[in-house]
Every structure is written in structure tokens, then in C-alpha cells.
Amino acid sequence: MEIALGSFFFQILAFALLYILLKKYAFGPLVKVMTERQENIREQINMAVKNREEAERLLKEQNEAIQKARVEAQEIVERARVNSTKQADEIIESAKREAERIKEQAIQEIQHEREKAVQALREQVGSLSVLLASKILEKELDAKEQSKLIDDFMKQVGESL
Questions:
Q1: Residue 136's pLDDT is what?
Q2: Where do runs of H (alpha helix) occur along the chain?
Q3: By the 8 A CB rule, do 153 and 128 touch?
């Protein structure tokens, strides 16, 4: 087999020229596009990781804020319960003091009215005693009539009271 040296060099030269042209016009831009795409994908992956980390951080912050709000709400409810219990106790205590004051006032009024009634009774008994004595003096009575007169007088006193 004979190798034609001229044809061989020509084919090598054509292949080298074709390789240079392909490298310059096809492989170069193709590698550049692939490199740019690879870099773009890398950036998108990094951005997605950062976005996920940011979302996780925000979610954690929101969960902490929600938990804090729940604790604050529970504290507010507890304070309101304590305050309402305290106010209820104060109202009950005030009502007890008022009831005690009204009771004392009623007792004083009853005592005063009783004293007035006793005084009025004394006055009536005094005047009735004078009346009885004057009636007894007007008549000289025997024991039966004197007893009847006292009974009548006591009935009259009982009716007037």
C-alpha cells in the first residue's frame, strides 16, 4: 500500500485548518455558551439556597413572634382575670361594709325608736297613774271596786298602746 505523501499532508493540512476554523467559530462560542450557562445555573442554585435560607430565617422569626404573641396574650388574659377577681373582691368587700353600715344604722334607728316608745309609754303611764289616782281619790272604794277600777284602767291602757 502506497501512501501518497502529498495527499497525506494535504489531508492533515485540511484537517488542521478545519480544526482551527471549528475551534474558532464553533467550539469557542459553544464552550463559551456552555460556560456561561454553567455559571448561570451555579448562580441560580446559590440564589435558591440563599432564598431558602432567608425563607427559613423568616419562618423562624415568624414562629418566634407568634409564640411571643401567644405568651403576651396569655399574660394579658391572666392579668385581666386577676384584675377582675380583685375588683370582684373589692365590690364584695364594699357591699359588706355598706350592709354593715346599713345594719348599724337600722339598729341605731330601732334603739332610738324604742327609746322614744319607752318615753312615750312612761308619759302615758304617768298620766294614767295620775288619772287613776285622781279617780281613786274621788271615790272611796272598797277592795272589789278598787280591783275592778284597776282592771278597767289596765284594759284602757292596753287599748291605747
A1: 64
A2: 5-22, 28-138, 143-160
A3: yes
